[in-house]
Amino acid sequence: MDTLTLFEILTLAAGLIGVYVKLTQELHKLKSRIISLEKTEGEVKQMLNELLTAVQEIKILLAGQGIR
Fold first, then answer.
1. Burial letters for 15-51: b for 16+ Cβ neighbours within 10 Å, e otherwise?
2. CA distance linking residue 5 with residue 56, whole number of Å
3. CA distances from 24 to 17, 35, 37, 38 (A)
4. Which of 12, 22, 58, 64 has a CA-to-CA distance to 5 between 20 and 30 Å?
5. pLDDT tens profile 51-67
């Protein structure tokens, strides 16, 4: 095998390993971000439900004031 060919093969292998490592890191970052966003989404839904309950109570109080 020619030394230049061996050098090219080693360079290509190193490049492929580098790309694999970089893509694996990016995938891990994206998975972490998804978990964080899903947690935040749950918190937002809970706050919206609390807000809806409060608005409904206000509507009931205003309706009671209108009847009197």
1. eeeeeeeeeeeeeeeeeeeeeeeeeeeeeeeeeeeee
2. 75
3. 11, 17, 20, 21
4. 22
5. 999 999 999 988 888 77
Cα(12)–Cα(24) distance, integer angstroms: 18
**Cα(23)–Cα(17) distance, integer angstroms:** 10
pLDDT tens-digit profile of 16-48? 999 999 999 999 999 999 999 998 998 999 999
